[in-house]
Design brief:
Number of strands: 7
Order of helices and strands: HHHEHHEEHEEEHHEH
Distance between the termini: 38 Å
Largest sheet: 7 strands, antiparallel
Number of helices: 9
Helix content: 25-40%
Structural class: alpha+beta
Strand content: 15-25%
Strand order of the largest sheet: 1-3-2-4-7-5-6
């Protein structure tokens, strides 16, 4: 499944591209995020201990007070909550390799123009000593790093009132090496989704990223043979002599409040169909494939706080060298 480190990596790739500098590797991001988590947990544990000592009682034993005598305003777990980790919101494809745009409704389907990637390892080998990485906790397994996944990268903007708007979403059903695939589609979704203008530096503080890794592709017995709460859906059909297709990721239909039929009609219009809604069953050779996707997301502030810690640690390492 997608992880928070995958989202941080996409942010790092995007910001580095806008700033014309080299980004961290996926391995470095995973390792440094794990260290950052450990640091926050360590600080939180110390704060809990300090609050126990400062209340004048030392660590409170079960026999020290009756439950009704405890002052909930002095609950150290509540006072230290600001330092705890932030809560973050949201395989093999049988079809030909393709890049697709998918998320909230649109009548335009975008394709990736970034089909060729340089060898990431050759570009980033000079950064492998960015930090002495040592032992880590909560590491992705080597198998996860080496496996390939169909994937989608989504950029949203979040308004001051918390309203989410799509800013770019492109992915592929062709299994991708995780590092190269995330790098490629983080930039493709940011700059090459033809439904939107390219993302600018001025927008970064309002951005949120979401990564979805896809799996469990299964041909549907009929176009309604899928689950609204679980599946993403990919359809294809023939219209005016052309083969058209489109997809929605898992949860899109639920977020939009659509029924299955409404989702099918929306997908067909997204692909380019212009018929009447009630005639959707009459199109030629309509087929559907259902799939599942495990996603993760994070906002700009999460990336910025983590990256500030990374930069500070890097500067401290250089000063000691």
């Amino acid at each position: 499944m997608a992880t928070l480190a995958h989202c941080l990596f996409c942010f790092d790739v995007l910001v580095a591209s806008l700033e014309k500098r080299q980004h961290l590797t996926l391995r470095q991001v995973e390792d440094l995020w794990s260290q950052y988590q450990s640091k926050l947990e360590h600080e939180s544990d110390h704060l809990d201990h300090d609050l126990d000592v400062e209340d004048g009682h030392g660590p409170m034993l079960e026999s020290d007070h009756d439950p009704e005598e405890l002052d909930t305003d002095q609950d150290p777990t509540k006072q230290s909550s600001a330092l705890r980790l932030p809560t973050i919101s949201r395989l093999q494809a049988p079809s030909p390799a393709s890049a697709s745009s998918s998320s909230t409704p649109s009548s335009i389907s975008a394709s990736s123009s970034r089909l060729g990637l340089d060898d990431t390892s050759s570009k980033t080998s000079s950064n492998t000593s960015f930090f002495s990485l040592g032992r880590r906790s909560q590491q992705p397994s080597p198998a996860l790093r080496d496996e390939q996944y169909p994937l989608f990268v989504t950029w949203n903007t979040i308004s001051a009132r918390g309203h989410k708007s799509l800013r770019g979403c492109i992915g592929t059903f062709e299994p991708q090496d995780l590092s190269a695939g995330l790098e490629n589609y983080a930039l493709t979704a940011a700059f090459d989704d033809t439904r939107f203008s390219p993302i600018r530096s001025a927008e970064l503080s309002a951005l949120a990223n979401h990564v979805t890794l896809l799996h469990g592709f299964t041909p549907c017995a009929h176009p309604l043979d899928w689950d609204l709460d679980t599946n993403g859906l990919r359809i294809s059909f023939t219209y005016h002599g052309r083969r058209l297709g489109a997809t929605y990721l898992p949860n899109v239909a639920v977020e939009q409040g659509w029924s299955k039929e409404e989702t099918i009609v929306s997908l067909m219009r997204k692909a380019g169909w212009t018929g009447r809604s009630k005639d959707w069953r009459d199109v030629d050779d309509l087929t559907a494939v259902r799939y599942e996707g495990k996603g993760e997301g994070c906002g700009w502030s999460t990336w910025r706080e983590w990256r500030a810690w990374v930069d500070l640690r890097h500067n401290e390492t250089k000063s000691r060298a």
